Amino acid sequence: MASKGKTTTTTSTTSHAPTTSSTGLRPVNNSVGVDDLVMLTEVSENSLNGNLQKRYKEGLIYTSIGPVLISCNPYKQLGIYGKEYIDLYKGKHEFEIPPHIYSVADKAYRALKSEHENQCIIISGESGAGKTEASKYIMQYIASITGSSQDVERVKNQILESNPLLEAFGNAKTLRNNNSSRFGKYMEIQFNYIGDPEGGKITNYLLEKSRVVKQTTGERNFHIFYQLLSGSSPEERELYKLLPIEQYNYLNKSRAYTADGIDDVAGFKATRKAMKVVGINEDEQKQIFKLLSAIMLIGNISFNPDNSGKTPGSTAADRQLISTIAALMGVENDLLEQALISRVITTGQGARVSSYRVPQSVEQALYARDAFAKAIYSKVFDWLVRTINKSIEVKTKGKVIGVLDIYGFEIFENNSFEQFCINYVNETLQQIFIDLTLKTEQEEYVTEGIKWVPVDYVNNKACVELIEKKPFGILALLDEECLFPEGNDNSLLEKLGKHFASHSHYSKVPLTSKVSQFIINHYAGKVHYTIDGFLDKNRDTLFNDLVSLATSSSLSLLSEIFQYQPVVEELDPTTESSKAYDRLKKSGFANQQAKNAIPTDKKRPITAGFQFKTQVTALLKSLYSCNPHYIRCIKPNEVKRALDWDSDKSAQQVKYLGLFENLLVRRAGFCYRQTYAKFMRRYYMIGKKTWPKWEGGDAKRGAELLLEELAIPAGEYQFGVNKIFIRNPQPLFQMEEKRNQRMHELATMIQSTWKMFKTRRWYLQTRAAMKIQRAYRGWLLRRECVQLKNYSQNLFQGKKERNRDSLVLSSLAFIGDFLSVANDDYTKQVLAREEGPNASVRLSVSVSKINRHQKIQKRALIVTNSNILHISTHKPKKDGSWFVVKRKIAFSALEKVSLSHLCDNFFVLHVPSETDYICETNRKTVFITLLSKLYEKQQSKPLNIEFSDSIAYRTQKGNTEAKFTKVDQLPKEQLYTAKAERGNIKISVLEGQNPDSKSFVVQQ
């Protein structure tokens, strides 16, 4: 298949695209014409066409006229899309790089983020010019440059997957295009505040449902029928009752079953994948495929005449076929046949209402058959669009980028109602282009007081009014004729000839012609419309019998789509306050008398033409509320041959697209115009005289100061009443470059200020936290000290005379590691060896031990969670050792601890299985208190502490005794003396504090 809208990076003498081969991109040829037609040295239609042809022959299919992109269908892949080219165009201005569809998409996206205004991309051109592919590449680009969070990826995937699904059901092979869109589509992508897609909405327009039942020779029905027949498995063929493709009357009349470049099997896989992505479950997919099969089989129903009654009727020729179709549709056989061969007529009102069944002739039955098939398919298509919208809808309203991909202008050998509607919407889109790029621009120069030489152009407003104006436009007269029971196509043609006999865009066809036709002189040329079928297609009637039949179906999908009532919003100018709608009215697109809602009474049925006109009006309202971007697609030849240029055909499209007039306006005009307020909001930070404020405060005065400071030549700009106009892009480049640099500087300033603030706040918070922590730890320590003092008092009060130092112990006294050995590496090694890897120092203290010879030895005790280690220190050695463990006493081996009643620092550790241990330390009170707490925790019982002035204990020499005696004085201010006496030890102690002494009030 020839690619639609396949495009390539273009080049010109002004191109700035990278040409390095390391990127993998095509080298840029700067010698082929100009990539912006504004740069043409000779301004004429011939030079314009010649430049397009020259570039097209070299595979350079993109050319621009300022912001308007011209795209020529190459009918082959050019290898200019993908990640490399997306990165090349991301964030670039259109003046910096050759024209490309990615450049248009990037410009729209940047405008959405920077200006916070809705954007729309209007893609127009003939059928086969490449509009659908262009819209795909726009979607691809936007999806690639936006965020990648899980929710964003889900939305992007659903939006992208809607394309193959809608193409399968809405596109078909025509004589002009193998993948022609047979419906219009306006895709709106909504973005969140950071510029990532968060949802969207699809609006579809006028599906060409007549294609379901009839195609021109050489064309195909919608792709989905061929996908289903080619891609279904044998089991699915049996389930859906599928026949060989040649046996379907709705498919075999055109004698075209394949299309170049289209793989129906692969397409069916893509369609099913897309269905799953947008939320269509397996059961709904099966129902859709059953209905598609039923539609194809409906075309095989034939009827025989039945003259047995008073009124000629008909009967179904193949009852088995009726049964198969009924099973697929989930309805009863007899009801299906009756709904096709007869209809119920209701007459009278109120109590006098009566109904009777009227037989249908063979011709009427065939008409009902085709109408039913078209209705089912059309409603399934509408349901698909609603399902896609449901999967991507977002409740909050945000800024959008709209992409309009609508059927191109069509001129066939036989043009009917569908071509009339298609060409009508193209006529209105052409009017938008003229209005915004030619008419409005020139009017703006006049309004703003800018020096300007007007450019003449062809305005097609009269042709638009011929079709849509009330009360005597073609659509209004068509609706009116549909109201009359005796109205027919010929009476409509006669009425059109009478009303528009002198209209410049309407012509009659001589009566000698074999067919009844009328001619409209469109912007793209004269089109002969065959009047036959206009009224029937406009009425779009489906008998109530067939509607009731569908709603009774056991298939939930079929019943739902026939019960669904679309809600069409009324366009009421009285409630529209935006300037966009005012422009709409002034341009002649709004019917100022059409303030009534859609008629729903029996006298004014809703016609296809009325619905379509309402949709077009709503579309125009949406487009006028957005900042537009244009892609004008050109079909280079009729034979779909790659890079083949038909000069006459291309020149005709250039002419009716108004490209030459657009070129004249662009060359004579200004490339940039903006209100003073928006201009200053974007650029005020780059001038010293305007940052952060400027004198006077007026935006126009600010613009004057800024341009004066930047030394931009006066000939490059003009000041209008409300806007500033800049002629060439170079000053904009200069300002944008300065703005980017300034934004970086300001961002750095903000960052540094914020970092300073954060760091200072962190510092102050840290200091505050440290104070709080210090106070809290102090409180915890004091509380623990109080608890330990209370515990200590409970141990000693009333049992032992107190030392003054013991009564005034500080909180530091209960830290316990008096020797500071807890973090000593050698100590850790010894404890790991003696007790295990988890051993830790809980208490360490120097002691004076009485040995077996009753001599005093300087030693130390280290207490862990479960042991008491008696160590002897020595000078540090090379291996780091500085003590040896003389003895280890386990808590479990400790029987009791004995102390005297007097004011001394001696205590005895009684170890029944070994020898006892007697020593003295000035940390006696803390040691005994902490040892008692550790012992109680480890042994789950209190430590036995006894008080006696005569303590018996056992040494290696045998049993001995320590006797404590109170004396009045001791030499050299000693608290006690210890002497050996008859194998015992006599300890003399001065009188201490009362055993009941307290140094503070005990608090818990």
UniProtKB/TrEMBL annotation:
Residues 616-638 are annotated as: Actin-binding. The keyword Magnesium does not apply. Keywords: Actin-binding, ATP-binding, Motor protein, Myosin, Nucleotide-binding, Repeat. SUPFAM superfamilies: P-loop containing nucleoside triphosphate hydrolases. Residues 7-23 have a biased composition (Low complexity). InterPro entries: IQ_motif_EF-hand-BS (IPR000048), Kinesin_motor_dom_sf (IPR036961), Myosin_head_motor_dom-like (IPR001609), Myosin_TH1 (IPR010926), MYSc_Myo1 (IPR036072), P-loop_NTPase (IPR027417). SMART domains: IQ, MYSc. ATP binds at G125, E126, S127, G128, A129, G130, K131, T132. GO terms for biological process: actin filament organization; aggregation involved in sorocarp development; cell motility; chemotaxis to cAMP; endocytosis; pseudopodium retraction. It holds the Pfam family Myosin_TH1. GO terms for molecular function: actin filament binding; ATP binding; microfilament motor activity. Residues 32-740 form the Myosin motor domain. Residues 1-28 are annotated as: Disordered. Residues 802-991 form the TH1 domain. GO terms for cellular component: cell leading edge; cytoplasm; myosin complex; plasma membrane; pseudopodium. The keyword rRNA processing does not apply. Belongs to the TRAFAC class myosin-kinesin ATPase superfamily. Myosin family. Myosin I heavy chain is single-headed. Dimer of a heavy and a light chain. Inability to self-assemble into filaments. This is Myosin IA heavy chain. The gene is myoA.
